Amino acid sequence: MQLGILGLAKAGKTTLFNILTSSRQDTDKFSASQKTHIAVAKVPDPRLARLRDLFEPRRYVPATVEYYDIPGIQKGGGPQSLDLAQLRTVDALVHVVRAFEDPELPHPDGSVDPERDVETVDLELILADHEVVERRLERLAKSAKGGLSDDEAREQKLLRETVLPALEQEKPLRDIELGPEEEKRLRGFQLLSSKPILIVLNVSEDRVAADRPADLDSSAGGGGSSRRVIVSAPIEDEISQLSPEEQQEFLQDLGLEEPSLDRVLRASFELLGRIAFFTVGEDEVRAWTIRRGTRAREAAGTIHSDLARGFIRAEVIAWDELLRVGSMAAARDQGVLRLEGKEYVVADGEVVHVRFNV
Ligand SMILES: Nc1nc2c(ncn2[C@@H]2O[C@H](COP(=O)(O)OP(=O)(O)OP(=O)(O)O)[C@@H](O)[C@H]2O)c(=O)[nH]1
Ligand SMILES: [Mg+2]
């Protein structure tokens, strides 16, 4: 699962990337980032941590997300100013928006205005998509002289009647309704404005608690494919360097329940409709990432292909139920361990043990 961090110059992208992934890329007030950094972040999950405390395994493996830190977009720089090759391949976008004041670091547009910046960046994505779609339509028009296949004709209709008009009205494609077949048809184009997006408002240190209510309205500014989180990058940086006890105290003083970074990570995960199921034991307590709606046999395949091939049954229990009874054996004895077949749809937070035979 890959997410591209993008935004205007000096919004705090690399600062955020460093904290998310415990990296140490240079950040600086004056010179612009030149290249894309890539690193993996662990998704914090209190449920999995509780299971770790119960099993005390040798290995603890949370779910992960991969972040790409893309150099800042130069406004009006056109598609060239985006690292398009990298951005097209990611599953979703994280737009870091500057909402902090710093007299030493003037905003390229002369003032701090997050809503304007959200629109500016959306517009860059829309322009990049527009170019791709127009080019494709030109090519289709050329081959139309020799006659289009059914498939090509359908593609042309979709691009011409739905996609192009939306882009021309400066509407991001994530906001238009498409059927499953249309969505599949478009996927190959890897259009940027169709990707789910998480908006991260990087606010001033003193506003991180004050701004919470707006933050909770996570659907603000769009449907299910766009969400918002508020952070203060320097505060998150500070938090990440504290011990767990100090963290608790610091967060309480600020009136926060958890580091905002945890919420960025979880939102990244949820943005893509991903859920986690767990495997437990003395050897390993581990999270596995699947799409919502995945059936037991396919879920088993994420652990190992043999488990899908030789799938017999899955023993399933909710994570909190397992904590309550204390072990898989106790769950079996008490009749709370369910036996599910290959068509069973695995739910978020379930502990799964696959019985298989190859
Ligand atoms: N005061 C303040 N400074 C910040 C904040 N976030 C980042 N900075 C500073 O802003 C400068 C730029 O931060 P970066 O993380 O490099 O920004 P960037 O978006 O990656 O910049 P480019 O990649 O060059 O576009 C650094 O000096 C940071 O320390 C913030 O919330 N408040
Ligand atoms: Mg940077």
Question: Key features?
Answer:
binds guanosine-5'-triphosphate; 358 residues; DNA polymerase, domain 1; binds magnesium ion; 3 domains; Ubiquitin-like (UB roll); 12 strands; 6-stranded mixed beta sheet; Rossmann fold; alpha/beta
Task: Provide structural commentary.
This protein is 41% helix and 20% strand. The protein has 358 residues and is of the alpha/beta class. It folds into three domains: 2-44 and 62-112 and 195-271, Rossmann fold (3-Layer(aba) Sandwich); 123-193, DNA polymerase, domain 1, CATH 1.10.150.300; 293-356, Ubiquitin-like (UB roll), CATH 3.10.20.30. The strands form three sheets. The chain has a six-stranded mixed beta sheet with strand order 2-4-1-5-6-7, sandwiched between helices. Helix 2 packs parallel to helix 13. The structure holds guanosine-5'-triphosphate and magnesium ion. Magnesium ion is lined by residues 13-14, 33, 69.
Q: Count the E strands.
A: 12
What are the distinct ligands in this entry? Answer: guanosine-5'-triphosphate, magnesium ion
CATH topology of the largest domain: Rossmann fold
- The residue fraction in helices comes out at 40-55%
Please tell me the overall pLDDT: 89
What is the element layout, followed by pairings?
Layout lengths: L1 E5 L6 H9 L15 E6 L3 H10 L3 E3 L2 E6 L14 H6 L2 E8 L14 H31 L5 H19 L11 H8 L9 E7 L8 H5 L9 E6 L1 H8 L3 H11 L5 H12 L2 E6 L4 E8 L4 H8 L1 H5 L1 E8 H7 L2 H6 L4 E3 L9 E7 L2
Parallel strand pairs: 1-4, 1-5, 3-9, 5-6, 6-7
Antiparallel strand pairs: 2-4, 8-9, 10-11, 10-12
Helix pairs in contact: 2-13, 4-5
